Amino acid sequence: MGVKQAIKKLDAFPRAEEHLLKKTQSGAIVSIIGLVIMATLFIHELRYYLSTYTVNQMSVDLKRGETLPIHINMTFPSLPCDVLSVDAIDMSGKHEVDLDTNIWKLRMSSDGHIIGTEFLTDLVEKGQSHDHSHSHSHGHSHDHGHDKQQHEETKDQHDHKDVNGDPKDKHEDLKQKSHLQSFDEETENIIKKVKKAMANGEGCRIYGVLDVQRVAGNFHISVHGLNIFVAQMIFEGSNHVNVSHMIHDLSFGPKYPGIHNPLDGTVRILRGTSGTFKYYIKVVPTEYRYTSKDVLPTNQFSVTEYFSPMKDFDRTWPAVYFLYDLSPITVTIREERRSFLHFLTRLCAVLGGTFALTGMLDRWMYRLVEVVMKPNKRGVI
């Protein structure tokens, strides 16, 4: 019995007899408020425990021989699809054609509705002549320039040989004149088509994926795919090329939770002027590791912007450039969950604190009621 009595003395929660306990209305109100608070905090702590948090780590990028996917989705409200081309160049001089590159062009009306679709494969390699085959809108203009050059060479040969009065030269001369006439008609049709589209306020939306080498480079969207003489006849000067654009999406890989691409939603509208936009992009290789151990390789990037207005003596044509370089540091973002012991610790602190606070509030209210009610009782007596 001595041991039991000693243990009872250690009881930190002594209880009074049931008939000595007094239940009050104020106590009931405080109890209800306390239960609501504890339930709310319990749900909050449970959601906090079930959620994940991320830990960032940095290391040297050791990847080699991989490609860099570039997802683009842009709208040019003032330029028809027939005059726009996408050019991709990297430091190695390689041209990403006929690989996994898929770019589409959507013809847009002046009110933003889609009126046509076109597949684009006319990536232009730096240093190469413009006699590559281009899709739909650009192919004719390059063929025309090549045919015109070939015609001039043939015509010079004819003028040199015509001194001897060879009948074959006369036949070739007639043939070249017929070819030149055909060239002019096709060129005029293209020019009329583009001018009509521009008069109707037709724009173009370009979207798709570029798979380029994992080295520094750039891609740009412009009218560079046109023969320079055709471009001059269409726009009557580079100052009239309006490269206003809206960037709906620009990313260098799949998206992960919490990623922010700084160029998404960018709108640049030119009024009464023209020029070249340049976006200098620093690509940071990133790995996102889920709690399920799945790994998502992707890229983040930062960007700075520069606009160069056109001047009267400029011989270049306006364009939108995206110049990218890769960081040597890779970022690993790892999802983690909080431990169950951490959850229990926070839960005990929250619930215990709420219980203690409501107990103190109940005692204060009980004493306040007693102080208020005592003078009334004395007055009745």
Question: What is the topological layout?
Answer:
Blueprint: H1 2-9, H2 25-50, E1 52-60, E2 67-76, E3 85-90, E4 102-108, E5 114-120, H3 139-161, H4 167-199, E6 203-213, E7 217-222, H5 228-235, E8 245-251, E9 266-268, E10 275-289, E11 295-309, E12 319-326, E13 329-337, H6 340-380
Parallel strand pairs: 10-12, 10-13
Antiparallel strand pairs: 1-13, 2-6, 2-8, 3-7, 4-5, 4-6, 7-12, 8-9, 10-11
Structure characteristics:
elongated; alpha+beta; 381 residues; seven-stranded mixed sheet; single chain; six-stranded antiparallel sheet; 13 strands
Describe the structure.
By secondary structure, the chain is α+β, with helices and mostly antiparallel strands. It is built from six helices and 13 strands. The chain has helices at about 1-10, 25-50, 140-160, 165-200, 230-235, 340-380, and strands at about 50-60, 65-75, 85-90, 100-110, 115-120, 205-215, 215-220, 245-250, 265-270, 275-290, 295-310, 320-325, 330-335. Strands 1, 3, 7, 10, 11, 12 and 13 form a seven-stranded mixed sheet that branches. Strands 5-4-6-2-8-9 form a six-stranded antiparallel sheet, with no helix packed on it. β10 (about 275-290) and β11 (about 295-310) form a beta hairpin. α2 (about 25-50) runs antiparallel to α6 and α3 (about 140-160) runs antiparallel to α4 (about 165-200). The protein is elongated and about 115 Å long. The two termini are about 50 Å apart.
